[in-house]
């Protein structure tokens, strides 16, 4: 009976709809972007988004950023198409690939992105506009170090948001970034109190989930990185002490102080 109750609890934790809200101060953020809102979603895998969960976000978000692993091998593609359409209906949407997307098939996924209006960023930099100001949004290809070649010395003084799948990729771009959004770890997915995540690779133990400060060289203000627990699950459709989450991030300019 105890085992059954625990499994039910773990299933529920994996299927919760939870939106974590954070205010994030960014030194280089132009005043016209103060109060702008990002919806960040990563690691959907096979999980289906529900329209009733997404509907309250309509009109509340400026951009949707998708941190990879929106698919996995053997997935039913209509699930992915519907998920991407729901997210793209909220606000202009941008995405990067994750490792499971590569296994699922990027040719089909690229078509879905194009058809639903989600812009794929593969070591690319685009501008986001508000009135007479702009910030940079950069997206890194999975396990690539090429993105830094598309960022210049001038970008260190501008506001740059970087979208990556694997938080370990931050090492190659963090010196340019004011804000990095990542996922991949699922927060460990199964976390034993006092022992921590039982299946998480040792390399990710120090960046399993949450907010981190990234030191930048030459006196530039520190950057920030979010590692999301993700919205879906990998392998087992269960979570323990590690609830599913998406993120509503409000950008705050330090220039208003």
UniProtKB/TrEMBL annotation:
Residues 38-187 form the Calcineurin-like phosphoesterase domain. Transmembrane segments: none annotated. It comes from the Bacteria. This is Metallophosphoesterase. It comes from Paenibacillus illinoisensis. The lineage of its organism: Bacteria, Bacillati, Bacillota, Bacilli, Bacillales.
């Amino acid at each position: 009976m105890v085992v059954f109750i625990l499994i039910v609890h773990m299933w529920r934790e994996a299927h919760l709809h939870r939106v974590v809200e954070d205010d994030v101060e960014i030194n280089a953020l132009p005043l016209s972007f103060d109060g702008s809102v990002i919806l960040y979603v990563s690691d959907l895998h096979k999980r289906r988004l529900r329209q009733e969960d997404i509907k309250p976000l309509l009109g509340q978000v400026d951009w949707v950023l998708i941190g990879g692993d929106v698919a996995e091998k053997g997935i039913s593609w209509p699930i992915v198409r519907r998920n991407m359409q729901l997210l793209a209906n909220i606000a202009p949407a941008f995405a990067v690939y994750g490792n499971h997307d590569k296994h699922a098939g990027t040719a089909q996924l690229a078509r879905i992105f194009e058809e639903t209006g989600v812009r794929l960023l593969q070591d690319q930099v685009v501008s986001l506009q508000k009135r007479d100001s702009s910030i940079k949004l950069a997206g890194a290809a999975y396990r690539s170090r090429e993105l830094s070649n598309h960022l210049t010395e001038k970008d260190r003084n501008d506001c740059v948001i970087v979208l990556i799948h694997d938080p370990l990729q931050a090492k190659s771009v963090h010196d340019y970034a004011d804000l990095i959004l990542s996922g991949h770890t699922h927060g460990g997915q199964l976390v034993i109190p006092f022992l921590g995540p039982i299946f998480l690779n040792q390399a990710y133990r120090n960046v399993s989930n949450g907010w981190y400060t990234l030191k930048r060289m030459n006196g530039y203000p520190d950057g920030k990185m979010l590692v999301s627990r993700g919205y879906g699950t990998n392998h087992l459709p269960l979570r323990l002490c590690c609830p599913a989450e998406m993120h509503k991030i409000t950008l705050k300019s330090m220039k208003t102080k």
